[in-house]
Amino acid sequence: MNIKQKFGLKVKELRKAKNLSQERLANLAEIDRTYLPTIEKGERNVSIEVVEKLAKALDVKIKDLFDE
């Protein structure tokens, strides 16, 4: 499993733990709703800005998105 896939799975895990739909998380993170599923599948090499937006929307620290 590569880093993009690991990151995507962590985002999905945290999103589900917070009972958020993909659309709701995308809205909270101010990213396009069609972008989030590709992140969760590990298909995107996201920018640090998107990492920060996701961390804020999930109310976690950036490092938490990389913890295994």
TrEMBL record:
The keyword DNA-binding applies. SUPFAM superfamilies: lambda repressor-like DNA-binding domains (SSF47413). The keyword Transcription regulation applies. GO terms for cellular component: cytosol. Pfam families: HTH_3. Residues 11-65 form the HTH cro/C1-type domain. PROSITE patterns: HTH_CROC1. InterPro entries: Cro/C1-type_HTH (IPR001387), Lambda_DNA-bd_dom_sf (IPR010982), TransReg_Diox_bact_type (IPR050807). Gene3D superfamilies: lambda repressor-like DNA-binding domains. This is Transcriptional regulator.
